[in-house]
Each structure stands twice: as structure tokens, then as C-alpha cells.
Design goal:
Number of helices: 10
Strand content: 5-15%
Radius of gyration: 42 Å
Largest sheet: 4 strands, antiparallel
CATH topology of the largest domain: Outer membrane efflux proteins (OEP)
Distance between the termini: 78 Å
Number of strands: 4
CATH superfamily of the largest domain: Outer membrane efflux proteins (OEP)
CATH architecture of the largest domain: Up-down Bundle
Length: 447
């Protein structure tokens, strides 16, 4: 019995195979999840160790900012003692009034419990100064965390656009390899039918191999950059993902506005200002030590005795309550107090100089970054035009090469110019984006 298959059935089977094939391809591509910049930043802020360390230090500063640490609350100390003694006696009395007293292994014990309180009532406002100092230290911790966050966001953003740059370069080299492949096929066909030379065929093969090597090297660079990016986000080094395909720029930034923002909200500058405040408070705190300190003192003590000897008090209990005021004043300490005040004032002056130096450096860094940014924007327009011309030249040169008007050398030069033009355009866009991110970071607007 012969099995016959109708043509419609064959076509249905063919379409089913195509559907399964393209579904497999689609699933393979979708397995690479698109990782956005926003998701990357969230992962970095959640996982990166520098942020976790900064937040731990910020929590330490919060824990230190308490009334007790500043000295507003009293200190109460409790003591408890229990002593045991084993003693022996051998006593004779004058005039024989009493019989000699001889004892051994006499067990006695005593107990003592007490509470002591000291409460500073006045210390030249030192307590208030310390409380303000702890508050500023807490603010400094929060600002340092903000600085760490902005630096990490800047690093993640720059690295993300570097990934886009690497991927665009891969695609650029792929297009160049496609042109070399078409040229190689055409040179081979011409050589086989006797219309082309062996030299042209071999030259096309060499150029193809060269372009393939460039593509392999760029793909390796892209994969290595991916591994570094996964490391930055503190996740599996070999986790695969895709990134956006464009380097988009924000509307052109304004330098005077950037300077104004930077002098108001740059985290590093704010940290320096807080450090200056802390130095001023430290000076006031040392100066407060020159004032008298008045403390309220109180104590309670309980004593209990158990005497195993056959004379004296057998058992006894006593308690004592005492309270009063204590005033202390540093009258002379070898001029050390004066020296500490002078050094604290010098530290405050140094902190002010560091602020002035930081402002100067910050404005200079902004100026340099803005020059780089503007030059990159100007070059983008130029390189975009060059790339458009280079693409047209490729089409023209390849058509001329097909009909034998253009030589292999001419086509190769046009091809190199096109690849080079797109590479320069990619690099210029990346340079502009990197400068843009840096300008926003310096202005304190990255968050």
C-alpha cells in the first residue's frame, strides 16, 4: 500500500516547522532581559557595599546624637560587695578579770551595697554645645551617604552608557564585516568565471579576515564590560542582559545655572561646610571647659555585718544617705587649656580655607567639564554629517565595484571611512554623555 501525502498537508507541515523555529529564536532572544538604567541604579543602591557602609556610619552618628551622650542626664553607679573572713583569737586579760579567750575558725561576713549619682547642672553650656555638635555630625553622616549615592549613580550611569557604546561598536563592525563578505563573494565569483584576478580575491579574503578579527576583539571587550557591570551591581558576574541601543542627551545644560547649583548643593561642598561648623563647635566646647562646673551629688550606702566572734556586735546594719553640690574650676593647668583653644581656632581656620579651596576647584572642574561637553556637542553635528556622507559613499562605491568601475582598493577605503565615521560618532556621543553626567553630579542634581 502506497502512502500518499497531499501537497496542502506538506505546506502545513512546512509552516508549522517555520513557526516552531521562529518561536525558538524569539524565546532565545527574550531570554536576555533588557536592563534599563533605572533598574541598574536601584540594584546598585540596594547591593553595593559602599552604600551599605555609608548607611551604617550614618546610623552610628544617629546613635551618638542623644541627650545622655551630650551630658544632660545623670550618671548613677551601683556597687555591691560581700566579704567573708575566717579568723582566730588568743587573748588574756589583766588582773584575771576574765578568763582567757581562745577561738579558732571564727566565720564572719559583711555586706555593702550603695548607689552614687552625679548630675551636672552647669558646665559653661558645654552640654548644649556637644548636643549641637552631635547633630552636625549626624547631618555630616547623612551628607556623606548622599555623596556616596551620587558617586555610585554617576559610576553606574557612565558604565551603562559605556555598555551602549561597546554594543554600538559591535554592530558597526558587523556592518563592516557584511560589506567585506559581499565583496569577498563577488571577488570569488569573478575569479571563478575568469573576470577577476586572484590578487583581488585574496585581498578581499585578507580584508574579510581583518574585519572579522576586529569584530571578535570588540565582542570580547563588550562581554568583559558586561562582567564588570555585573560586578558593579553586585550580582552574578555572568548574568546576561541587554541594554538600550541609543545614547540620548538631555537638553543643553547651562553653565551659570550649574555653578549656582553646585555652590548651593554639591554634597562634597556641603560636607566641608558641616566640617567647619563642627570645628567651630569644638572650639566653643573647649572654651566652655574654662568655666566652673557644678554637679549635684547624691549617694546611698547600706552596710550589714555578721560577726562570728563571741564578743562585740554580733549582727549589725547601717545605712547612709548623702547629697550635696560640687563645684570645680580649672585654675591653672600649665596653659594647656589656652593651647587647646588656640589649636581649635586654627582647625576652624583650616576648615574655612578648605571650603574656599574646594569652591575654587569645583568651579574649575565645572568649567573644564563644560568645555568638554560643548566640544562634544559640536562634534556630534559634524560627525553625524560625515557619517551620512560616508554611508552614501559606501552605496555608490559598491555599485561602482559591481560593474567594475571602482577598484577593490577604492571600495576598501570607502568602507574604512564609513566604519571610522560611525566609530567617531559613537565615541563623540559617549563623550558628550559622560561630560553631561559629570556636570550634573558636580551641580548636586544627580539625585
Amino acid at each position: 500500500m502506497l502512502l500518499t501525502i497531499r501537497k496542502p498537508a506538506i505546506m502545513k507541515f512546512f509552516y508549522l516547522c517555520l513557526f516552531v523555529f521562529f518561536t525558538f529564536i524569539e524565546n532565545s532572544v527574550s531570554a536576555q532581559k533588557l536592563l534599563s538604567l533605572e533598574e541598574s541604579i536601584q540594584l546598585g543602591l540596594q547591593n553595593h557595599y559602599s552604600i551599605q557602609i555609608s548607611r551604617k556610619r550614618e546610623k552610628q552618628a544617629l546613635n551618638d546624637n542623644t541627650p545622655g551622650n551630650a551630658g544632660f542626664l545623670p550618671t548613677i553607679t551601683g556597687t555591691l560587695n560581700k566579704n567573708y573572713t575566717i579568723s582566730g583569737l588568743d587573748q588574756e586579760f589583766f588582773g584575771g578579770l576574765r578568763a582567757p579567750l581562745v577561738q579558732s575558725g571564727v566565720n564572719s561576713n559583711s555586706s555593702n551595697a550603695g548607689l552614687v549619682m552625679a548630675w551636672t547642672l552647669y558646665d559653661g553650656k558645654g552640654m548644649f554645645i556637644l548636643k549641637d555638635r552631635f547633630k552636625e555630625l549626624q547631618n555630616l553622616g547623612a551628607t556623606q551617604t548622599e555623596t556616596a549615592i551620587e558617586n555610585l549613580i554617576s559610576l553606574i550611569s557612565s558604565s551603562y552608557y559605556d555598555l551602549i557604546r561597546q554594543n554600538l561598536r559591535v554592530n558597526n563592525f558587523k556592518k563592516g564585516l557584511e560589506i567585506s563578505n559581499d565583496r569577498l563573494k563577488l571577488a570569488k565569483d569573478r575569479y571563478e568565471v575568469g573576470q577577476g584576478s586572484k590578487v583581488d580575491y585574496y585581498s578581499a579574503q585578507v580584508d574579510y579576515n581583518e574585519d572579522k578579527a576586529l569584530l571578535i576583539a570588540q565582542e570580547q571587550s563588550y562581554l568583559n564590560t558586561k562582567i564588570s557591570y555585573n560586578t558593579l551591581l553586585v550580582r552574578n558576574h555572568h548574568e546576561d542582559f541587554m541594554v538600550d541601543t541609543k545614547i540620548d542627551l538631555l537638553p543643553k545644560l547651562n553653565l551659570p545655572e550649574l555653578k549656582e547649583f553646585a555652590l548651593k548643593q554639591n554634597p562634597t561642598l556641603i560636607s566641608a561646610l558641616l566640617t567647619k561648623k563642627i570645628s567651630d563647635l569644638e572650639t566653643k566646647n573647649i572654651q566652655s571647659l574654662q568655666m566652673p562646673q557644678i554637679d549635684l551629688l547624691a549617694g546611698y550606702n547600706l552596710n550589714q555585718v555578721n560577726n562570728g566572734a563571741g564578743f562585740g556586735v554580733q549582727r549589725g546594719t547601717s545605712d547612709v544617705l548623702n547629697y550635696g553640690l560640687r563645684a570645680t574650676l580649672n585654675i591653672f593647668d600649665g596653659y594647656n587649656q589656652k593651647r587647646r583653644v588656640q589649636n581649635a581656632k586654627i582647625n576652624a581656620e583650616i576648615a574655612q580655607m578648605q571650603i574656599d579651596d574646594l569652591k575654587n576647584s569645583l568651579i574649575a572642574t565645572l568649567e573644564r567639564a563644560f568645555v568638554t561637553y560643548e566640544n562634544a556637542l559640536n562634534l556630534i553635528s559634524l560627525e553625524t554629517e560625515n557619517y551620512a556622507i560616508a554611508k552614501q559613499n559606501i552605496d555608490i562605491a559598491f555599485d561602482r565595484f559591481k560593474v567594475g568601475i571602482a577598484t577593490s582598493y577604492e571600495l576598501r577605503e570607502v568602507q574604512r571611512n564609513a566604519v571610522s565615521a560611525e566609530t567617531r560618532l559613537i565615541e563623540t556621543k559617549f563623550a558628550a554623555k559622560s561630560a553631561e553626567i559629570e556636570l550634573i553630579r558636580l551641580s548636586g542634581n544627580l539625585l
